[in-house]
Amino acid sequence: MSRHPLRQVLPELALRPRTVVFAVALGTAALFASTALGALSAWLIARAAEMPPVLDLTLAIVGVRALGLSRAGLRYAHRLVAHDVAFHGVARLRARLVDALARGPLTRVLGLKRGDLVARLGGDVDAVGEAVIRALVPMAIAVGVGVGSVALLAFFLPAAAGALAVGLAVAGGVAPWMGARALALLEKASSDTRSHQLATALELLEGAAEWKVSGRAPVLLGALSEDDLCLERLSARAARWTAAATFLMHGAWSASVGAALVLGFAALGRGALSQVELCVVVLVPLGAFEALQSMPAALPQLLRSTEAARRLLPFLETPEAEPPAAAPPALTSAAHLRAEGLACGWPERSAAVSGIDLTVRRGTSLALTGPSGSGKTTLLLGLAGHLPPKAGAVKLGEVSLAEVSEQRRVELVHYSAEDAHLFDTTLRENLRVVRATLTDDEAVAALRKAGLGEWYARQPQGLDTPLGRGGEAISGGERRRVLLARAWLSGAPWLLLDEPTEHLDSRTAARVMRDLDGMKAHGRGLVVVTHDADVARALDSVHALAPRDSEA
Amino acid sequence: MKPLDPKLLRHASAARRYVLLTAGLGLGMVALTVLQARGLARLLGHAREVAGGPEALLWLGGVWLLRAALAGLQEWTGKRSAHRVIAQLRAGLLARLASRSEREGTSAGGVAQVELATRGLDALQPYLEGYVPQLLLTALATPALLVCVWRADPVSAVLMAGSLPLIPLFMVLVGRFTREATVRQLASMQQLSARVLDLITGLATLRALGRHRGVAAQVLALSEAHARTTLQALRRAFLSSFVLELIATLSIASVAVGIGLRLLEGAMPLETGLFVLLLAPEVYAPLRQVGALFHASAEGAEAAAQAIARLEAPQAAHGTLAAPPLTSGTLELRDVSVATRDVGRCAPEGLSFVLPLGQGRILGLRGESGAGKSTAMAAMLGLVAPTRGGVFLRPEGTAALPLGSLDLTTYWAQLAWLPQQLHLEPGTVRESVCRGRVIADSALSAAAEATGFDAVVARLPEGWDTKLGRDGQGLSLGQRQRLALTRVLAGDERLLLLDEPTAHLDEVSEKRVLEALKRRARQGTTLLLVSHRARTLAIADAVLTLHSHASSPDTLAEAA
Asked: Is the CATH number of domain A346-551 3.40.50.300?
């Protein structure tokens, strides 16, 4: 049986047990202070009614005041400690995941959609941290306060303490479980409708002009309100359950107080309990349920965090060891990059392309074309050695790329993905990513080479020009060219570029291609993936991939 | 943030009912709480005499049962009403979305609006379920409870009434005191988390460049810094709830001690003392809840405010004149310029031409990307108001009517538009092609044959009755293009505005589509083609070239 995902992920937060215990202790003390405040006040008032000498009450008066003062401070300290514990744990988990991704199989990183990567390492990691703050610590506190209250009551009247224990278990366990279950079911049942609704709303927005001109907006609005009706039915069903859970919680509370009353009066009749003690016996359960206030929110949080942890698990698997690097026999001077009967595809999936034979010589350029879905990008990744061949081989000279270590491979073969990332920093740093020792002169020369000379001359901040988040501060064409400058700077003899002219108009695309073709001049070999036949013609040769039959 | 915007009640009728219902249920709960306190105090205060009389216990049990039922009811109405309010706001927002102008459509604000209308409004749920009822309770229950305490023990009531206003007062003071530092820290927190996300997003790129060593350490350092900054911010943020808790519990403790001392003097019966002691926490409870829920609800209140702002935003005025028939007269563009997002640049710029209607003319528009071809078409449709110049319809022998003066729906009903980006509406293939028009099967299949859509339909599981879009079949770009062309060819509109009609088509289909378009022109339909394909533009009687700066005058003359 596989262990609970959250239990597998939580150790990666590397929480110090002592700090966690401290956080729980502070929280327990804070909540117990209010139960104790109720009980001690009851004792004080009931005892005062018997008009004892004032000295008998001094201690109780001081105690009540102290409890009134301490609760807020304890709670404040508890919240800070709990957040501190969780936040630092989250930082460690995030770094651990990045490390696993950086060292693990390359295909794992390359195969991830950018949005997924950010969702996993962003939101999902935070969700695991929230499990600590909003679920696990509050649950521990609820148990602590519950046990404390039961023990306090047991001191006066064990039978009533038993009733309180049952009441707390129902109100803190069964009722929140019912509520959380209803919410989880609702989420599950409504997620399809919700994504439909989102898709339709986006369609409504994106095609706004078309719907207006064709008068079809009412059709979409109708579909949207149908979705809302469906959601309303589902949420009404869930509301019945949460309402029942609330009823149960209040019922458990009433039953516990009621039991304390009945048992207390019976004990009073027997003479086993004084009137003062009776007051305490009734007021302890009255306040004890405050400890459960965070339970209804804790369980749904636990479910959400568990889902997040489940998504994170595959990332935590131990990274594969790098294959031993074969002594590279003059790989740098290899004259050609060759695919021999190559079949490649993503791990655990069938090959996207197969039977590929092609050769790129240094100083020549090759275009890979084909309709979308024909496996152009997959083949390019295969040629870069990033996807291990399913059959055949990719060879640099006479050496199979599969035998070359990743570090050495990326030095020899520069692969630029279609969505290669531009970092939210300066132009200089975005070029230095290729080589840390880059000088400004080299950077500017590369920009000129990539056709950015004029643009660069217009930038008042020069190499310090910020490119914005994901390069949003520059145009699509400039973005492509910065990636070309990177390729130029890489020093790798083989440049493999995916769709370098995507989203460019035909004239700009032609110019980019011309600049690209210039890169082969210095004895480099060039492979370019493009879906644009016009662009492909600008290169020395074209390898066209056939559409895949399996998709038809 | 406004605690409860009255405008929300105006825009969502469900909210009005909800607020009334919540107030009623809340007051019911308060009444039961008072009854329970009274019952408990009586039982405990006279323990010796009453000795757990079964009647008193039964009575108390009844109160409790009612209380639990009322709490469940509150939960139920809260959940359901919140959903209704959100649904009403959503419907309103989406209807606004459908009638928005072209310009807003593609902007970031547009996507934000979809985000608001879908997921954003869900933030209202905790706001409506939790915050609003507690706010109402603070306004209604707190004074009612104070009155009850006053009648039992005026001294305690005065103490509570004195301490209650201190809570919001100190919270505001703490907020003021820490605002500047909080804003500063928020900015640096956002910056740090943006940097972490940037590094993570670029992981694949770093890996492909062999530069991934040290990224994990960098992420750790940045995340640790983020954690430290956040904690500094929280140290201040939690201060306000500390103040709230401190004043509330200290006041309750003082009330208890005060009662104890007066009991000691024999100035008060035990029953009264216990009654006040039991009610004291209840007096502070709603205000404490409001404080606790304040931050969690801020998002919901913000979403509500945004939704209201959107719903109340003024809408562009519409013309009222019915469009003249497009079978005669002319469509005229006079010196039309539309400002682009680049300051000072217009595309198109100074575009003028006269297109005679009802004579089967075909006008082509070409130009490099960004020259304003599609924008020119949007201006002709009245979707974009030109920054300078204007678009006019001139019926034969009368004055020209500016598009802005027309009820555009009467104009749109007479034309067919093929936009560059195609969208599928939910429904069957037939519905999507016919779009509410009555089209004979023969016309449908003739049009489908011309565009090659017949082959697409033949492969669909249920042919013309296959469901499209969300619940049904997805179509590839080429298949969508064929569907949209079939839609255009199957109708009998007298003006066709076609943006890249032959995109995604192979040479054979392109030829057939162009033939069909020529046939339409021979029947007297006016065509406007935007394209960059020479073969497509070849069927035009005249071709206008748009440049990013101005349209070339010689081709202009040719067109006119």
From this structure: yes
